[in-house]
Amino acid sequence: MNKRETGGRYEKAAADYLSRQGYEIIRANYRCSQGEVDLICRQGGYLVFVEVKYRFGLSMGTPEEAVNWRKQERIRKVAAFYMYTFKLPEDTPCRFDVVSILGEDIKVIQNAF
User: Fold this and answer.
1) Any alpha helices (H) in the chain, and if so which ranges?
2) What pLDDT band is residue 3 in, cutting at 50, 70 and 90?
3) May I ask which residue range the UniProt record assigns to the signal sequence (predicted)?
C-alpha cells in the first residue's frame, strides 16, 4: 500500500468515526490553490476543518505533533478560501479539529488550534 492509499484509508476511517460522533461530513479532500484539508464537516453549529494524521507507532512522534504551525497556517488559509468561495459569512462559527490515529486508536482533538 502506498502513502496515498494509506492516507485515504485512514481519512475514510476518520470520516466514519466522526459521523458516528455526530459530525456531518460536507467534503473530503478539499483542494484549492492554498493547499488542502482532509475533511470539512458541520458539528454542533460549527463549520469544522479537520486534519487527519496517522502513525503506526511513536517513533516519529504522536500524530497530532505532525500538525505544526506551518501546517496549521496552511489549513487556516484553505479554510478562508473555502469560506470565500462558497460565500459563507465571515462570522460563521468555525473550528479546527485534528483526528489523531495511532495504530488503531482514534482520538479527536476539538479546537486543536
Assistant:
1) 3-20, 69-85
2) low
3) none
- Element spanning 25, H or E: strand 24-32
Q: How many domains, in total, are found in the chain?
A: 1
Q: What is the mean pLDDT of residues 94-112?
A: 96
What are the counts of helices (DSSP H) followed by strands (DSSP E) for the chain? 2, 5
> 3-class SS at 49?
strand
Q: How far apart are CA 88 and CA 106, in angstroms?
A: 30
Is 14's pLDDT higher than 80? yes
- CATH number of the domain that 18 lies in? 3.40.1350.10
